[in-house]
Structure formats: C-alpha cells, structure tokens
Write a structure and sequence with these properties.
The protein has about 450 residues and is an all-alpha fold. It has a domain of about 250 residues. The protein is built from 17 helices and 2 strands. The protein has a two-stranded antiparallel sheet with strand order 1-2. Helix 12 runs antiparallel to helix 14.
Length: about 450
C-alpha cells in the first residue's frame, strides 16, 4: 500500500510540473489579463493550508527539524508557466538569472557543504531541494511582473488573502474560543509575520495619491485586517514590528507631501489600532505577565545549544536540517545535556527518554549558525543585504512615482522581517518562505527597472 501511495504522488507531481506548468505557459502567452489573474491567485493561495499546494516525498513526520522530506510546491508550476510564457513571447526583459538570484543559489550551494559533518546526510538534501526549487518562484514571478498593473494584481491577491484570513481568525477567537489563533498557518507567529510582510506594501499603496479609490478601499481594509490578525495572534514581537513598520511607511509618505488621503487614513489607522488593542488587552496583559528571564525562557537554552554546535563546527555547522538530531538523545547527547542542565537548574527531574525529540532554536540566525556554520550564515546574510539594497535603491530611484512609495513599504517589510528573524525562524516554513521569495523577486524586478532606466538615460545623454 505504501508503494502505491508513493507512485500516486509521483504521478501527481509529474502531471503538475511537467503538464500543468508548461500548459499554463502556452495558455498565458500574450494574455496579460490571464497572467495577472494567475499572479493574484498565486499570492492569494499562500493564505491557504500548506496541504492545499504542497506534496511531500519521503516524509519523516516524527522529525522535529524544519524540513521533513522532499517537498514539492505546486505554486512552482504556476511560476514555470510565467517563465515559459515570457520565453514563448521572446521577451527581452526575461532573465534566467534575475538580479540577486545568484546569491540565493550561492547560499544553497555553500549550505550543502554541511553534508560532510551531518549526522544524517539525506536530511541535508531535503532543505537544499526545497530552497533550490524556490528558484522557480523567483524566476517565474520576476517574469510575470512586467509593469505596474502586474504588481497591483499580486497586491490584490494578498489583499483578498488578508481579508479571508481575518474572518478565519475572528471565527477561531470568538466562536471557537481560541486564545492564540493561527488561521491556516502552522503557528500564530508565522501567521503574524506573514501578515505584516504583505500588509506594509499595501499600506504604502493605499496612501499613494495615484492609487484608484476602489484599490484604496481594498488595500487599506486588508492592512487593517492584517493589524487585527497580528493582535489576535497575541505575538508581542509581531505587534511591535507591525506598529514600527506602519509608522515608518506613514512617515515616509509625508515626505511626498501631506494629502487629505494620507492624513485621513493615518488617523483612521491610529484609531482602529487603539480600538483593536483595547479589544485584546486582556490576552496581551496575560502574555505580558509571562516570565521571559533566562532561567525560565526555553529559547535561552536552545540558543546555548546552537552556540555549542557552532563552537565545535565553525565552518560548515553540524549539518543543514540536522539540528533536531544533534540536540536530542541518543545521537546528540552532548548538546542535549545543555538543555537537561537548564531544566535541572529549574528544579525539574531529568529522565533521558524525555529528551529524544528536543525543539529547535527559535532564532533563524542561531539555527543557520548551528547548522551551516559561518560560511552558510555569511552567504545568507549576503542575500539579506543584497535584497535590502535593491529595495533601498528602487525606493530612491522611483521615489516620485507610486512605485517608489510601494517599494518603501516592501523594503521596510523586508528589514523588519529580517530583524524579527533573530527570535523567529519562520522563513524556513513553506508559506512564509514562498511569500518572502515572491517579495524578493519583486525587488529584483524593481532593480532591473532601475538599471534599465539608468541605461536609457545614459543612451539619451550620449
């Protein structure tokens, strides 16, 4: 029976990647409206449960690592369609290697070096497979974003997703009686981080004077929905990130000048924020009362495990996706002992069988340092710097256009998400990862537009 299931999965994967993806390419060729509908659907689908668009081969469900098998993401088939359509149209702005993508592949390649120290080499291949395939998303979205209308199509998809998500969360909170609702996400923290990542560019578009009134209503409603979702997640860090990001985008817009729309939406956002926070004050007060001192914060002990792994394997780490093995008994007794001592100091009785599946560190950066060493961490940070730099340059270059204000929102979202990675590793999770790569493809396309504009200017000047 298991063999039959595997064969069935292989057939489905082959049909989607080798059939549906290429078929979309022929269908979308020369059809701008169809491409934009597909782009909006791709953005919207990311709010749905991962099981709606992923399929796993060789899945190890008991493993507590960040990747549990060889994952196929069917949204990549849509991206293949976008790329093929651009190739069939012989578009000169299509690039097999868009700006910044080479750094992504460099990071994946360098991280693969950790296979030499891994307890389970095949576990290293799982994230390498997953993250390398994100190149389909990057190239496809880059190919699909040809002008401002395409950008708006993607943003509308995310707007609808946020509106659906807030209804789902309100149902979970006030009908089902949940405390920390998580919508269709694996956990409330990735849901909150996903929400503000896509909401900040929507805020920038909503307050842009060039945005059409119907889009202003949609984008601002989606932004408000994101704020409510963040509050319902009861994530203190995400609420702070959302507040800081929103303030930065609003203050940046004032550099464009004060307009009735910006003043009105800014005031409405502030009042709405006060009302929503007041609604959820009881849950936040309960969370604020939690003890986060090192003696009682599990993250402190897990980060100490990471530091010990890095000290032992500074160059390439203990193996990509091997943290869950290396920090748990029986194969990771040395590092499990760190967690066991922490528990013992808290007055807990230690039973070895309780430490056979220890959790991963919450910090993305400590996880990268432990699993991939300084080499993998360094190349990842290079990608962080490159994408941030592209966002800054695009913001400056297109500042006097609607694209400039939106790119400010995108850049702020990226910077805050990267900063938040110090305490959350959600960029390793499929939905947040795919959204992040789509945003990076957007800043890559903006960088291409900037370079093309500079080239045209040089030619005219010559």
């Amino acid at each position: 029976m298991e063999v039959v299931k595997v064969l069935a999965k292989i057939v489905v994967i082959a049909v989607v990647y080798l059939g549906v993806g290429p078929a979309l390419g022929f269908l979308l060729r020369g059809r701008d409206l169809a491409r934009r509908v597909a782009l909006g659907f791709m953005a919207f689908e990311l709010v749905r449960p991962p099981s709606d668009f992923t399929l796993m081969l060789y899945s190890i469900e008991w493993y507590r690592g960040h990747t549990k098998g060889f994952e196929f993401n069917f949204l990549e088939a849509i991206a293949i369609g976008f790329a093929l359509a651009a190739i069939l149209e012989k578009r000169k702005d299509f690039k097999w290697l868009p700006p910044g993508l080479w750094v992504w592949f460099l990071w994946v390649g360098v991280s693969l070096l950790s296979i030499v120290t891994a307890l389970e080499p095949v576990y290293v291949l799982m994230p390498a497979f997953k993250f390398a395939k994100m190149g389909f998303i990057f190239v496809g979205v880059f190919a699909a974003l040809r002008d401002d209308k395409d950008v708006l199509a993607m943003m509308r998809g995310w707007s609808v997703a946020l509106l659906v998500q807030v209804v789902n969360c309100l149902w979970g909170r006030y009908v089902l009686g949940g405390f920390r609702v998580m919508g269709w996400f694996e956990h409330q923290n990735p849901m909150a981080m996903w929400s503000y990542m896509v909401a900040l560019p929507l805020l920038a578009l909503a307050i842009s004077k060039e945005t059409k009134p119907r889009d202003v209503v949609l984008f601002f409603a989606a932004f408000g929905a994101a704020g409510l979702v963040v509050v319902l997640s009861v994530s203190r860090a995400s609420l702070a990130a959302f507040g800081v990001g929103s303030a930065l985008v609003m203050m940046g817009s004032f550099l464009h000048g004060l307009t009735p729309r910006r003043i009105g939406l800014g005031a409405a956002g502030a009042l709405g924020g006060i009302f929503v926070i007041a609604m959820a004050a009881d849950t936040f007060m309960e969370r604020m009362g939690e003890d986060d001192s090192p003696e009682n914060d599990l993250r402190f002990a897990l980060n100490n495990q990471s530091a010990a792994m890095l000290a032992d394997h500074p160059l390439v780490g203990i193996g990509w996706n091997n943290f869950g093995l290396a920090n748990s008994r029986p194969r990771g007794t040395k590092y499990s002992a760190i967690l066991e001592r922490w528990e013992e100091n808290r007055g807990r009785t230690i039973y070895p069988e309780m430490f056979q599946a220890n959790p991963l560190t919450e910090s993305l950066y400590w996880l990268l340092l432990a699993e991939n060493g300084y080499l993998g961490f360094g190349t990842f940070m290079l990608f962080v710097l490159v994408t941030t730099w592209f966002g800054v340059r695009a913001t400056v270059c297109f500042w006097r256009r609607p694209l400039g204000l939106m790119m400010l929102g995108v850049t702020v979202a990226l910077v805050i998400t990267y900063t938040h990675g110090k305490v959350e590793r959600v960029l390793t999770q499929t939905k947040n990862l795919t959204t992040w790569v789509m945003v990076c493809a957007l800043v890559s396309r903006a960088e291409w537009w900037r370079r093309d504009a500079a080239r045209v200017k040089r030619l005219k000047g010559g």
